[in-house]
Amino acid sequence: MTLAVFFGCTFIAFGPAFGLFVFTIARDPLRIIILIAGAFFWLVSLLLSSLIWFIAVKASDPRDESLQKGLLIFGVMFSVLLQEAFRFLYYKLLRKAIEGLVALSEDGCSPISIQQMAYVAGVGFGLMSGAFSMINLLADALGPGTVGIYGDSQLYFLTSAFMTMVLIFLHTFWGILFFHGCEHRRWWEITAVVVMHLAVSGSTFFNPLYVGSLVPSYLLMAAAATWAYMLSGGSAQNLRRFLLCLRSGASPQPGS
């Protein structure tokens, strides 16, 4: 049973992201480098926010439960803001990288666009975030022990896997939205990304009422996905052609 939980949660949490990596990133060495660098930037932001939270906890009274809860909320919100700050720093770094690639290319064009960089960087942020969210849970899923034996929810591992999956997708879409906002100086788009990130992270405080965190997160993911799709040049007509497996310029056959 423990192996079934382990592999099931692993495939739920990382299966879709692994598919994105295999089909859209793995064949391009430059994209792999951008993904790894993005994961590193997220990791540094986590390290700094963890250090600040650790110092705050050690400097406070551990017997004061309300203070400890407040510090936990502060740590989560501060971590979100720091992640978005490092996303902005990564954008600035990639912008410089594009200028260097253009200068070195023979045709004066970059081999990768800023939109593609935004997507790959978002996947990097999401994968590293998901890894840190699930790695300890997956280790515990191997046992020994039975989830919910003392009356707690038996859906803990399953809901954690679905939450990890949505966070990976959200980071991907947030990367596209954030980079687009930086590129076109639309600061309200950047603000929207930060607000959505704060909302999703704050919703986890409803746990173990998992409906209070999963439902809002998936609704925000749908909104962010639609927004990112439109900013990337997508349209309802293109989506319809994709769903109907139509080629550009072709028309549906009668009765199809």
UniProtKB/TrEMBL annotation:
Claim: Repeat is one of the keywords in the record: no
Coiled-coil segments on the chain, per record: none
Membrane topology category: Multi-pass membrane protein
InterPro entries membership: Aph-1
Entry's Gene Ontology BP terms: Notch signaling pathway; protein processing
Lineage: superkingdom: Eukaryota
Transmembrane segments: 6-25, 32-56, 71-90, 117-135, 155-180, 187-206, 212-231
Main location, first listed in the record: membrane
Entry GO CC: gamma-secretase complex
Keywords (A to Z) from UniProt: Membrane, Notch signaling pathway, Transmembrane, Transmembrane helix
Localization (cell): Membrane
Role summary: Potential subunit of the gamma-secretase complex, an endoprotease complex that catalyzes the intramembrane cleavage of integral proteins such as Notch receptors.
Quaternary structure annotation from Swiss-Prot or TrEMBL: Component of the gamma-secretase complex.
Alphabetized PANTHER family for the sequence: GAMMA-SECRETASE SUBUNIT APH-1 (PTHR12889)
Family under the similarity heading: Belongs to the APH-1 family.
Name of the protein this chain belongs to: Gamma-secretase subunit APH-1
